[in-house]
Amino acid sequence: VLLAIGRDACTRNIGLQTIGVKINEKNGKVPVNDEEQTNVPYVYAIGDILDGKLELTPVAIQAGRLLAQRLYGGSSRKCDYINVPTTVFTPLEYGSCGFPEERAIDEYGKQNLEVYHSLFWPLEWTVPGRDNNTCYAKIICNKQDNNRVIGLHVLGPNAGEVTQGFAAAIKCGLTKELLDETIGIHPTCAEVFTTMDITKSSGQDITQKGC
Question: Would you please indicate which residues are annotated as catalytic (active-site) residues?
Answer without folding.
Answer: 186
